[in-house]
Structure prediction request, 191 residues.
Amino acid sequence: MHYSALVIGDFPEARISKYSDECDSEKVFEIEYTKKDLDGLDEERIAEIKEDYIRDSKGNYWCLYSPNTLYDWNEIGGRWAWFFILKDEVPSDKYPPVSFSWDWDEKEKQEQLKYKVSDQAQIQDIDFDKMLTRYKEVTGDNEATISDVFMFYYCIDDQTFYEVTEDKDFYNDYIKDLDPETLLTVYDFHN
Prediction:
């Protein structure tokens, strides 16, 4: 499953690292498959389990994981490449190139690239009006507001992560009053 996440602030990779299943802090050990669970599985799946998990003397397979895990894989942009539309005056080389995930076809990429887009940007460089216009065009929702555009599964800032729910006015509650130089980065999380 893929989830969109908005990371607020500089050094976004460092901010999200504690939520990775590869993070070494606060790891716990838990039985993932008992010997009985393996009965009836095909040999290919059993081989995968034997490779990915730790076997005990009773034939159970254990998993070492972090209970804070939000993702097992991530990339900037990915399925949400193109998210930010930049203002016309922003130099095109100010931010890294858009990172499309493997499943974007060339036509979809070109459609998104007709705008000056980025996977990360400072708030002052984002053209919120164009983002809202594009959202209305794509969804057909002419009553949409900028808060509808900023619907993420997760938001991560200096302190913690928030699971974003529909009852929150995300843009007005989290984005609007931030320093204009604050960096925002969109991630594609997989779990």
